[in-house]
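Handout, section 3.2

Students often ask what a structure token actually looks like in practice. Rather than define it abstractly, here is a full record for Adenine DNA glycosylase. The first block is the sequence as you would receive it.
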Amino acid sequence: APAPPPARHLFSDPAEIEALRGNLLAWYDKCKRDLPWRTLAATEPDADRRAYAVWVSEIMLQQTQVATVIDYYNRWMQKWPTLQALAQASLEEVNELWAGLGYYSRGKRLQEAARKVVSELAGRMPRTAEDLQKLLPGVGRYTAGAIASISYGQATGVVDGNVIRVLCRLRCIGADSSSPAVIDRLWDMANALVDRSRPGDFNQALMELGATVCVPKAPLCGECPVKQHCRARRRKLFGKPAPVPDVEDCGVGGCPLCPPATEPWDSSLGVTNFPRKAAKKQPRAARTATCVLERRGCHGALEYLIVQRPSSGLLAGLWEFPSLPLAQGLQEEKQREVLADHLQAWTGRPVAAGGLRLIGEVVHIFSHIHQTYVVYSLPLDGDVTLDPALSPSRWVTEEEFHASAVSTAMKKV
């Protein structure tokens, strides 16, 4: 059986916990950023409306930076100020507003969950982290904890990327921070630390600390409100201790929270030795041929054909130019041929491969795919009747294209 984590990695001294809470909350009250979802959560008297405001922000902030989210959040809350309003929206409307924010399934699941609250839960949000996670699709352990603590005052911790970094540095946790064993310990720690009287503020303070002070590179240790509790900083200041296991160095005996013996402390990195992460999996390479079909509309403006992607999978339900995945190593001449065959279904008539004009290539990096779009254009003369038996499709002007639910990759194209 693996060795249990030594108590010295965890928070066990009540006086230290109390001091850390007080210092962190005092700093948060003075230094927190002015963000629209915080303003809503602080001023909205209705708990369920407050929970909805927090929920939308937490879903948008997954994998997306605060600066990007603010504008999307404001437009979303203006369009759908309540959970009931969102439940009545169409998926097309949700996708249009979400376009460019990435990870599009987030918006779809958010709307599905809103509809479930209205239709199955009588419009009443679950009140605890356990019920939020169990009853709402797309709400995981972190989001449930954030909603429950900020909106309903439940004394439950949260663990996101910022919190992982802060806790790993505070306690010199150097094992792979994405491993289930380490994540479980970090949740235990977050639940032990959370302030019972101000759980929402405490959780936001911990996340704010990771986002603005205890950042991945070049952390501002001198400005940290909990620096006296940070064992990584202590180790940086005083160097590696003597070869006797103690608070900073308990690698003897196979401690499951210490850095592996093959990755010793690097004094040049200081506190950024922590957290350690597993090697990132390289995204797979993919190539797609895409064609911008254009025609003159009835008012003389150029129009472009866009088609809707399937309702599941990557970029589900979004609109794109007619596209076709390409086999690796396909020569350019063959690319034209397979694309021309594919386009015939949309145009209803044969397409000459030689008529396709190669424009260039667009690279777009998804989280797990290094995608290259090989871009062609094809002007069409006369009217083209779209087959209603195919995927939904429509002709749009450039202005209508940008107002549609299209991905950032298609805007690049």
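Discussion prompt for tutorial groups: The chain is about 45% helix and 10% strand. How would you have guessed this from the sequence alone?
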